[in-house]
Amino acid sequence: MTLLRQLTAVIIALFLLLFAGTVAISVSDARTYLDNQLKTISQDTATSLGLSLSQDFAERDMILVDSKVSLIFDSGYYQEVTVAGLDGKPLVQRLAPARIPDVPAWFVRALPIETPRGQALIMAGWQQAGTITVAANPASAYATLWTSSVKSFWWFFAVLVITSLLAMLALRLILRPLHLVEAQARAICDREYPVQDKLPWTLELRSVVVAMNRMTRKIKAMFDDQADAMERLRTDSYRHALTGLANRRYFDLQLQQLLASDEEFHTGALLLFELKEFKALNERRGYTAGDELLRGAVHVIDEVVQTDAGPDCFVAHLAGATFALVLSNVSEHEAIALGERLAAALPQLHQRGLADSDDVGHIGLAMYRHQSVSEFLSEADTALRAAQTKGPNTIHVHVSRGAAVVALTATRWSEFLRDVIERKNIVLHLQPVLRNSGERTVLHYETLLRVTGEDGQLIPAVVFVPMAKRLGLIRQIDRLVVAEVLTRLQQRRYGESIVAVNLFPATLQDPGFITWLDAALRADPVAAKRIAFEVPEYGALDHIEALRTLVNLVHRHGGQFGMDHFGRGFASFGYLATLKLDYLKIDGSFIRAIDTQRDNQFLVEAICKIAHGLDVQVIAEAVETDAERAMLATLKVDGVQGYGIGMPAGM
């Protein structure tokens, strides 16, 4: 019960006590007054009638005595009129039963009114001839008392109600700052940091609000400081100080992770771009000019990548004048087209006065065909050296001796994928995510998508998803997967387990999908509470408002929401404070061999501290060894996922 309700209850109780006491006193006073009135009436009537009957007794006219008694009694105000002789025997007597109409019997029993009798002597000359006794009828007194009591009750009840309402309103106004403080505390728990600008006028509440505002600012500052410290750590370890791109260390981590994961990198390309005679330019024009050329090269690369590559590409500054572009899940034709556009854009650097001539640099390209990391890099480097012998701003593609990748044409892919969607021909494999403790407790299962090829073999999502994106079918595939998972949850196929579904960033911007998902989750509240959704950080943050809308929708239905591949990009960690995620999965590039990587250990530990402060669970991806898992336990990582934890399987 809130403080307002408690105070209101106390005030109402006091008013009820006052109300009951006031009504009781009022009724008691009225009853006493009526008792006195009845006594007075009875005595006055007896005295008056005794004087009137004295002459009649002297003349022994009993007929007239009887008439006068009847006249008084028939008025209805008297319960008894008795004329008695000297021996006490009634000579004339009129009695009426005590009938009290329109007054509840319980009221009569609760408030008895005495029926006082008035007596007077009847004289015959100077001698006493008899006595007269008169008792007033209490019916009218009861009626008057009942009417008065009812009016008093309703009057005081109305005053009670009005006073209570006014008291509640006054208390609400006085205690409103406490409600705002409560909302402020709840907001902090929900990772928001509001400050009350309007201070209450009462000194006590003002001090509470001021203290709460101060605490809110402190907590926000602590989170900001932690986020800034973690970003500085990541920048120092994984970003090139001059260009702001990923450095060689980050490049090696990401490339190793991509090539080790068939779920993420089935086909792809590596482009090495190197500025020509960069060392000589530094010697001729100074290091400042060299730095400007590097920044200009980054600008050109960003323009090409943002236009043509999208989120499935990352760029690194390896060293000196050498840059690397890794393109995930692209065809050789697409990779060559991007390289040619980059080569064609290089003369801009000469036009802007950053390079000495139009011959700015060269590009070497190698396609991934399941080589090792060293072989992949060697092939790209060989292609770069070949490009440098071909002429200005040229690109050379390394011809691999490995087997070519068999691929469908764009038209055939379109027919195949549309048939998959129409026939709902998908296969779901589930990979467990375990709590990182001694017990093998399942936090949830992550859904991995497959489709059945024309030859009956399963095709992983990494193979067909790039083409689905180009054909604009990815949103339909997302909806198909979510619908299938919800159907299985409705059938209680996985018991009480939570099942996570990955959504593509493009789906976040589809209002039709959001509307459909809202209806689907509302249709089965039990299933809605056992589904989780994940989006990759490196693409989803480009649509942060749409993402926030989806997160709130899922939470409203009792589901969970997580961030996948956390840390792969270089986005600010500040969004964690407002996005209200349930968990985040640290990208496998930071987890692989973490038992020997000190910088990665510091980064993961810092992520855990920030996330736990926001009630967000931390899960490590790509865990493969016991040593990695043991180190993650010391770093307070909540959950683990990877081939060393559990292989994907149909369930």
Can you put this structure into words, describing what you see?
It is rod-shaped and about 160 Å long. It has 22 helices and 19 strands. It has 651 residues and is of the alpha/beta class. It has an eight-stranded mixed barrel with strand order 10-11-13-14-15-16-17-18. Helices cover 53% and strands 18% of the residues.
Topology diagram in text:
Layout: H1 3-58, H2 62-73, E1 78-84, E2 90-95, H3 105-110, E3 117-124, E4 127-136, H4 139-189, H5 203-238, H6 248-260, E5 268-275, H7 278-285, H8 287-308, E6 313-319, E7 322-328, H9 332-345, H10 347-351, E8 361-367, H11 373-387, E9 395-397, H12 410-423, E10 426-435, E11 442-452, E12 458-460, H13 461-470, H14 474-490, E13 499-502, H15 505-508, H16 511-523, H17 525-528, E14 531-536, H18 537-540, H19 544-556, E15 560-566, H20 576-579, E16 583-586, H21 598-613, E17 617-620, H22 626-634, E18 639-640, E19 649-650
Helix pairs in contact: 1-2, 1-4, 4-5, 5-21, 7-8, 8-9, 14-16
Instruction: Work out the number of β strands.
Output: 19
Mean pLDDT: 83
Lateral arrangement of strands in the main beta sheet: 10-11-13-14-15-16-17-18
Structural class by SSE content: alpha/beta
State the low-pLDDT regions, or none: none
N→C terminal distance:
47 Å
Rg, Cα atoms, Å: 47 Å
Q: Strand share of the residues?
A: 15-25%
**Helix segment count?**
22
Describe the sheet with the most strands. 8 strands, mixed, barrel
Proportion in helices: 40-55%
Q: Per the principal axes of the C-alpha atoms, what is the gross shape? A: rod-shaped
